[in-house]
Amino acid sequence: MGLDKSPVVLGKDHFRQLYQTELEQEAEWLRRGAREKVNSIEQFLRAHDLHPRRLVELGCGVGAVITECQRRSLAATYMGVDYSQEAVDYLRAHSPGIEAVQGDITDPQFRVDEPSDVVVVSHVLEHLEEPARFLHSMQRALKFSHAVIEVPLEDLMASRLKARLKDRTGNVAGHVQFFTSTSFEALIESCGLRIVDRRNYAPVLDMDTIRFVSQKDGLALHRYWLKAVTNHYLPQWLMPWWKRLYYAHHAVLCTAR
Length: 257
Description:
Blueprint: H1 11-21, H2 23-47, E1 54-58, H3 64-71, E2 77-82, H4 85-94, E3 98-102, E4 116-122, H5 131-141, E5 144-153, H6 157-165, H7 181-190, E6 193-201, H8 207-216, H9 221-237, H10 239-245, E7 248-256
Parallel strand pairs: 1-2, 1-4, 2-3, 4-5
Antiparallel strand pairs: 5-7, 6-7
Helix pairs in contact: 2-3, 2-8, 8-9
């Protein structure tokens, strides 16, 4: 049975429903997007001569990002944490060598005792009604030296114009936070983290991925071509302006103050 796209499903409930009804499709979509996200992690590690022994991903879902980190041998040991039991079971079954833990990082009882060199939070904060609470909980529950945090930027000029015409909370991705690089970095620093590096890029989807995600989300033909234009062609033709005006991803490397 496919995911019911008609109700607005946001935040944690969005992924809870996805993992219960479209686990394999969602895993494939996340796998396709993981490479560029892990590029952010790898570039930060190399630029700052970091060689983590232990890498932990919070909100890892089915493990696309941390599995790609493992494939590239970015650390010696790996742990993925997610509140969804379905996602954690999938990670355990498909990625041997990664410790998979089910838990809610914002639960006061949740704690990871073993210190971590790098904590990854990749495309999680935009799904949370209280992202600051998550970031504070991360610092309470884990001991770490560096954190890599990445979000999509969806409050740029073109997005704000579209928001006047259509309620953007009705998005199929389940986002409830819409960031600019300024608002995202302000959130990070307000939670007691110090930004030491940043990366801004616009993802470009290949046409096979466009076809896959259009089928996955049940898009009509005109929306398929709109996605092809806005996610494949225009980002390549207009890259410098695209990242400023329409859409980008923004990653930061942080340390605790």
